Amino acid sequence: RFLHVLLAVVAICEILYLSSLIVYYDRYEETGEKSSLLSSLVSVSKVLSDSVMMACVMLVGVGWNILRSRLRVRDKQLLWGTLLLYVGFTIAYTMCGSPYNLCSIYWLFLLVIKVLMALAIIVTINNNCDELKMDFDDDPNGYSSIAVSKLQTTIMGHIATLCR
Q1: Tens of pLDDT, residues 77-93
Q2: Alpha-carbon separation of residue 20 from 15, 26, 35, 113, 153 (angstroms)
Q3: What are phi and psi of 68, to 5 degrees?
């Protein structure tokens, strides 16, 4: 499945980020000087890692490869719009060297975008769980609807943890 491959890419990107961070601090400890090349590598790997993670969470939120094999047009617009904003402001913040509090503005916009992304993920997960509940309303035992409610609560808890 593509979702499993995407989750593996998330893990690889996170390992790349943490490895570059270890090399950066190891070099800093040895020489006492900050390497601009390693600093740039850490910044790029952080942007890549965070972006792939948020894309994966958003794809799971819209039900890609779980409830449906293709994304709806609205889901694609939501995904690409928010992801491009997120990547843009993350790059602007990590590469910021402005003395005029411009970095604080980038950080503020980045946090606002993260909150909006988390809200969009929660809304899409709720919609998908409601679709599942309607599909299971024909179940004579009624157990499936309860299971979907428990699943919805569990997913919301995980999303809240991821989006901190």
Answers
A1: 888 888 888 888 888 88
A2: 8, 10, 12, 26, 36
A3: -145, 150
